[in-house]
Design brief:
mainly alpha
């Protein structure tokens, strides 16, 4: 697998749909995380606190960190990461939410809960 033509880089794509049962708990956790970031400038902190208070999706973005996903994986170093959150209308029975629809032979690790 490690021939000269094979890249050492792997793109991992993950899509999660989260059901928020307690908006207050999510917001409080995000606010705690922001407060714990001692290196954050005051104006950025104020902006972050307002964002997570007004939008639960923003709070989730502060709480979920891609670095945590691979932190304990041996032999792997995170080269680049980006993530975003958005509110969505979710219907698990809709074909729109079929996570296998763009399967192109890549390794999948789909787990559907509930």
């Amino acid at each position: 697998m490690n021939t000269p033509e094979t890249s050492r880089f792997v793109r991992l794509r993950a899509e999660l749909v989260l059901e928020i049962d307690d908006v207050g708990a999510v917001t409080k956790a995000a606010l705690r995380q922001i407060a714990a970031d001692t290196g954050m400038p005051a104006d950025e902190r104020t902006h972050a606190e307002n964002a997570v208070t007004e939008d639960t999706a923003e709070a989730i973005a502060y709480l979920v960190d891609p670095f945590d996903l691979i932190g304990e994986v041996p032999g792997v170093e995170l080269a680049q990461a980006s993530w975003s959150t958005e509110r969505v209308d979710y219907d698990p029975d809709s074909p729109e939410w079929d996570l296998d629809e763009d399967d192109d032979g890549e390794s999948d690790g789909e787990v559907r809960l509930g």
